[in-house]
Amino acid sequence: MINPFYLDLTDREISDIQEKLGEILHGGNLILAKYTDEFEHEFAGYVGSKYAVSLNSCTSALEVLLTIKGAKDRRVAVPTNTNFASVAAILRAGGTPVYMDMTIDYFVPNLDILKFTVEKHPDVAGVLWVHIGGIIPPDFEKVVEFCRQKHLFLIEDCAHAHGSELNGIKAGNFADGGAFSFFPTKVMTTTEGGMITTNSEKVASRVKSFRNQGKRGGNYGGLHYDLGNSWRMSEIEAYMGLVQLVKLDEMIAVRRQAVDVLMPFLKESKIDFCEISHMGRASLYKFIIRIENEVTVGELKEKFKSRGVVLGGSVYEVPCHMQPVFKDVRFDPEDVKVATELCPKHICPPITSGTTSEDVRQIATAIGECIR
To answer: Which of 36, 88, 267, 292 has its CA 20 to 30 A from that of 198?
Structure first.
């Protein structure tokens, strides 16, 4: 059975992590110590940002960035086809989400959609941009410039976009701050965890305060300056991040190789998918195939499973404007009609850094039998 979850750790790497766990436990420094510092330094260097600050999750990272950028009592534009966490973070930071639609080509908004949103809602104060599936759209640099001209803060949700880049700039280094996830299913993992990248010393300093109950600097005493939380990454998670980061480009390359083999088959079979070949580099956290026939995603999942292929999670089958928890967030259905139509009409085959050439052949066969 080909599974969408693959933990890319060799036996040697697992032994190394186990050895470091013993070292950490015997040393007594379980948080905010040398491996956390090293992981933050190396991750910032990889992304190209001046600073990186680790947290316990991407959800926390988004909430912290939105709080620091002043989302409270203000409107924040966000794609509707995103994870619950993106919209929830805006609400928890005291802001009001304004849903953006997505394009058919890339399943992300573009500059025209953002301009429309800002014109319709001139009180929008900032943008939470989500690199869905690890895709940075071709016009994203124009999005960055538009936000700069309009004095809108811009936060990148990079939960899917480790190693994604456009014109030599990596995800997490375009905007006021980027938020990454290290959840087990992501391109790289620390089991749980998140990271904020930024080029602002002030933002980095405040993130460090918010993750540690509002304490600042080397203060571990009784003074709290921000209404923070316990959002720290552990030392063993940080060390696992170091192990994964070293081979991140290699893991993305395996995904890319699988997709490069799969795309010609899809084109020949006239099966529609999100094109990624001319967009710099996508992390390929998800490879999105659009479904044009009347079969439901649920039915397709069963068909694929019967052929030994477990489909990965979608992006996203139920967009946020249709989620019960967000029923009080007001929106115009006309503003999200593409997402409403296409979110239930796509699949993501199980492409991972463990995908073999035989896996690709089996996936292609299943696609041909289930979709055509």
So the answer is: 88
- The domain 11-246 is classified under which CATH number: 3.40.640.10, 3.20.20.70, 3.40.50.300, 3.90.1150.10? 3.40.640.10
E strand intervals along the chain: 51-55, 75-79, 96-100, 124-130, 153-157, 165-166, 169-170, 177-181, 194-198, 289-290, 346-347
Q: Which of 262, 290, 287 is nearest to 276 (CA)?
A: 287
**Alpha carbon of 70 to those of 63, 125, 145, 212, 302: distances in Å?**
11, 9, 20, 20, 45
State the average pLDDT over residues 16-28.
97
pLDDT band at 279 (very low <50, low <70, confident <90, very high): low
105-124 burial, b if ≥16 CB within 10 A, otherwise e? Answer: ebbbbbbebbeebbeeeeeb
Which amino acid, 246? V
Predicted pLDDT at 277: 59
Q: Is the pTM for the entire model greater than 0.70?
A: yes
